[in-house]
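Meet my pick.
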Amino acid sequence: MTSQVSSPAEQAEPTEQQGGPALAGGQQPDGGAKEVRRLDRVIIRFAGDSGDGMQLTGDRFTSETASFGNDLSTLPNFPAEIRAPAGTLPGVSSFQLHFADHDILTPGDAPDVLVAMNPAALKANLADLPPGAEIIVNTDEFTKRPMAKVGYATSPLEDGSLEAWRVHPVPLTTLTVEALKDFGLSRKEAERSKNMFALGLLSWMYHRPTEGTEAFLRKKFAKKPQIAEANVAAFRAGWNFGETTEDFAVSYEVAPATSAFNTGTYRNISGNLALAYGLIAASQQADLPLYLGSYPITPASDILHELSRHKNFGVRSFQAEDEIAGIGAALGAAFGGSLAVTTTSGPGVALKSETIGLAVSLELPLLVVDIQRGGPSTGLPTKTEQADLLQAMYGRNGEAPVPVVAPCTPADCFDAALEAARIALTWRTPVFLLSDGYLANGSEPWRIPDVADLPDLRVQFATAPNHTLADGTEVFWPYKRDPHTLARPWAVPGTAGLEHRIGGIEKQDGSGNISYDPANHELMVRTRQAKIDGITVPDVAVDDPHGARTLVLGWGSTFGPITAAVRRLRAEGVAVAQAHLRHLNPFPANLGQVLAAYDKVVIPEMNLGQLATLIRAKYLVDARSHTQVNGMPFKAEQLALALKEAIDD
């Protein structure tokens, strides 16, 4: 699960194409014991009201699955409102987890198991369930008023409308309250633990470890030991219910994905967490303090929260009063000699655009992290999109070129942060890092790297005059450039003899003095562009084992769905090539040659064709767009069908 496309050997692994658990064998019941079936993969979705703790439940199940050694991919999905009206469709929160005994790339197209905590959760998710899927439903919530809120005139548990699925009616609330009757809690307090009962039941069904969850609950509620033990009791009660009830006659095993991982130490990690760790690693490798100037915004705020915890690594985090103040402080820190970062989403980028242009003019290293979300304006704050690419490329006044880097998986956010820092520090430029909500909130196993393998990012500050005037005087010219990178020297304020002007007005080449000379302005504009064009980035790798005539080109978080779709097509005997871009400005040097080698180029994007627009303009290639802007990632099955149609057209 790296930034590279899959090798032919990897494609021999099981694909993600069947809907429903794939049986890999079985074990017959021994005496009175329940049957245990082995599966190669499962997709589970927890769904309930936004106050039901579905994100916590999914996160805990994921953590235990990771510790067990399965490969996994997750998709949290929750409302934008802090507290949407209880029991309504807009208030439904869900968490989907795909785990397997082999290499997987997506959270899965459709759940094999849905845990529905109320009527709204059932109605909001039912259309995604394939026939034969299992539904575990909290029957206590299927009373007249909750059903009326979502338009159920009769109970779907009784009117035959769920006959296509295997329904397990479980009175989760009642069972939880009964399990906690000796804890002295009010009914309302006891009911809050029903998510732990559900977690215990699913942990029994899929043989998940339990020790980690119990330790987590005791730590989380350490200041409220009664609540901690009540949650542990509810969790155990759910496990015991699965063990003893006749409604669940079968449990399932999904073996560890031993063949999916290289040797090493792994942990489950989300994209935002990986990105935060990558920024810390970059500051350590550069031997520079890390400064974050940020304003909270969904879905980027987790990076601010995480970096604020790491003062021991020299991280300084500043929660500003607004987006403009956040990037202004970060740019000031860059001038002062820090590895400077500002984090935001699309609406914040719009506010930061003038200061990004100032950073282009000052030619200082600055990382602008954009965790993209649905737009325009406030748009869909908790849904994913890839629609800020053209904004990152051109969303500033004047000619203000900025490099653009995009990670492709949650774990890859770590490496992308290091790469963005390498470019910013080496070429003295602001750099856009384009992640998105799907990567930010999703998670997967991450191989913890050896520090010795991380790149050396150390830089040399200017310490002495670098230019001699005609009269022999030695002076410091802040815009005298490195002949290889065209980067200007980086002088820390307070260094004697290196005083120089800063500001947004055009500079004279070399001296940095204010200049309105037309010829000088043209020289500076072209020089700044040449600096970006000259950034060295790796060639794009092409995965084409069968000599295909059609290339699927992607960028960012579409990597997982595209790769899963390509695997499906190849399993059906369809020849198709795949390439994925990390560097969007500048493009890899070999990209034009790669595109010219294919009759057809298809570009799937979660926008209306922004990369396709750039590819068409630069390479004059008739790139075909396949687009989606519904706030959700591509489904591999639907994408495979679209690619097949494009190939056959």
The first strand starts at residue 23 and ends at 27. The mean pLDDT is 94. The chain is about 35% helix and 20% strand. The longest helix spans residues 225-244.
